[in-house]
Amino acid sequence: MSQQTSSEKLRWTTADLELLAADEWKHYEIIDGELFVTRAPHLRHQAVIRNICNELGNWSDETQLGEAFPTPGIIFSDADNVIPDAVWISVGRMERFIDEAGHFTGAPELIVEVLSPGVMNERRDREAKLKLYSSQGVEEYWIVSRELQQVEVYRRENAVLKRAATYTAQDTITSPILPRFGCLIERFFRQIGTTR
Q: What span, in angstroms and rounded, lies between the C-alpha atoms of 68 and 58?
């Protein structure tokens, strides 16, 4: 029996995802040929995504500069296929980067990931996805912690996403890519009821 060497590392592709059984309770993503499988997130995780999309969507409705989407598919390449929690994309990029199946094929200006519990989940968002989004031309990346009620903002600087700020619940987030957008961070975490 032969052992697999690092140069023979198994690489997943977009075509491989089509062979996996459709399971609405799992998300399959490929980053640099590595398969990541996650369960459907906590209901409050999804509420944070909805709240962020609502804030970005309301601003987009007023400005007509672009659109916010929850959990879109982005196929950067056969080896990089992800489902971020939310994105905002300008009208210009939207016209260039949507394929016939309704997936993005290029980088939106803003990508948002809400952290899920677990070391592997956090490493995926803070390391693997940060590198991927940086290499693909994302202008701004928000890593959102539901537990800490904070948002870490990474902005493109010298062709790389670098940490620019950390906003807490009482701060107002703004962005150079979203003219006149401002939102109190605690609005991202508002909820009805007490389910945690």
A: 9
Residue 181, CB-side half-sphere exposure with 13 Å CA sphere: 24
**Residue 14 falls inside a structural domain:** no
34, containing H or E segment: strand 34-39
The helix/strand/coil state of 131 is helix
| Number of domains present in the structure of the chain | 1
End-to-end CA distance of the chain: 49
Reference 82, options 66, 104, 102, 100; nearest CA is 104
Helices (H), the chain: 14-19, 43-63, 91-96, 119-123, 129-136
d(CA 144, CA 150): 6
Is residue 29 situated within a structural domain? Answer: no
114 within 8 A of 151, measured Cβ to Cβ: no
What pTM value is reported for the model?
0.84
Model pLDDT for residues 89-139, shown as the tens digit of each residue: 999 999 899 988 888 999 999 999 999 888 888 999 999 999 999 999 999
Is residue 51 one of the residues assigned to a domain? yes
User: 64 in helix, strand or coil?
Assistant: coil
